[in-house]
From TrEMBL:
Domain (Tyr recombinase) ranges: 117-287
Alphabetical GO biological process terms: DNA integration; DNA recombination
A Pfam match: Phage_integrase
InterPro entries xref list: DNA_brk_join_enz, Integrase-like_cat_sf, Integrase_catalytic
Keywords of this entry: DNA recombination
GO molecular function: DNA binding
Entry annotated with the keyword Repeat: no
Name used for this protein in its record: Phage integrase family protein
Lineage: superkingdom: Bacteria
Length: 298
């Protein structure tokens, strides 16, 4: 039996749920959680109910207590199941979903003790929709990617210059003026950043307005409002998208210290330093834990 084998993938509701995803990896991540739930509960997703959700929660809780998974991972798994179940509940009686189907996973988010934290997570499907809406605007797409995957604030982004990035043997890092240490840039972000560097105009700051002046917080806020509107999703702020970066890292096992250091809490080419490694691999390894990858705009 394959890792993602589940009858859910054959249903119309699944096609509706994933049609706005930009890549197959997102759908595969959801299918992994659904298949695991079905295997542990011994019932198909749409034949399950409160008892099966409770059984799955207890199984995960036991794994957490044994140190096999973190509490954040437990919460993440229930969040993804809840996300699909709540979508299906909204369309019960249609797309192959039986009338009266209910999302039985949401109550266990609170039971897991992570609801306060998880309310800051922007659903993966919303981020996919946001990227799709902004893909023709290279600057906006790059800014959104840096907020979402790197965890920079609006102010930190507005202060970036093209020469602030350096490539070492163990990855690309950025010099952030408000931080004492360099900030790791994941490989998928580097690819998107390089595309933007090749096309941008020659101004002092990395991101700029029509006059060539650096952006400010209000500009970024209005940009996000524009593209969340086009995407048909809630008007998420830069800070909420940024928080998602830290919570996602935690959900995949990064420690509080790793997250804090990555987030900074407590001329057209990236410079290359041959035969050197930035002294701290900690955040490189932490970011490798995050099993998401943002693709360049089409």
């Amino acid at each position: 039996m394959k890792k993602h084998d589940t009858e859910v993938v054959k249903l119309e509701i699944w096609d509706e749920f994933v049609k706005h995803f930009r890549n197959e990896r997102t759908a595969a991540a959801y299918l992994t959680e659904i298949a695991e739930f079905e295997r542990i509960s011994k019932k198909s997703f749409f034949a399950s109910g409160a008892k099966e959700a409770e059984r799955y929660y207890k199984w995960l809780k036991n794994r957490e207590e044994c140190g096999e998974i973190s509490g954040s991972t437990l919460g993440k798994k229930f969040w993804e199941l809840h996300s699909f179940a709540s979508f299906a509940e909204k369309w019960s009686g249609m797309y192959g979903v039986q009338p009266g189907f209910e999302d039985c996973f949401f109550p266990w988010l609170r039971e897991a003790g992570h609801q306060e934290k998880l309310v800051h997570i922007i659903p993966v499907e919303d981020m996919d929709a946001l990227y799709r809406a902004a893909q023709e605007d290279k600057m906006a797409y790059t800014i959104i990617t840096i907020i979402h995957r790197v965890g920079l604030s609006s102010r930190e982004i507005s202060e970036l210059r093209p020469g602030d990035f350096a490539s070492y043997d163990n990855g690309v890092f950025a010099h952030i003026r408000s931080r004492e240490e360099l900030c790791f840039i994941p490989a998928d972000v580097v690819q998107i950043l390089n595309q933007f560097l090749e096309e941008r105009e020659d101004f002092e700051f990395l991101f700029y307005n029509r006059k060539g002046d650096p952006l400010n917080k209000m500009f970024i806020s209005r940009m996000l409002k524009k593209y969340t509107g086009l995407a048909g999703i809630p008007s998420y702020s830069a800070e909420k998208i940024r928080t998602t970066c830290g919570v996602t890292m935690s959900a995949y096992g990064a420690t509080a210290r790793q997250v804090a250091r990555q987030m900074g809490i407590t001329g057209t080419q990236i410079r290359k330093y041959q035969n050197r490694q930035y002294k701290d691999n900690l955040r490189v390894r932490a970011n490798e834990l995050v099993k998401i990858r943002i693709e360049p705009p089409v």
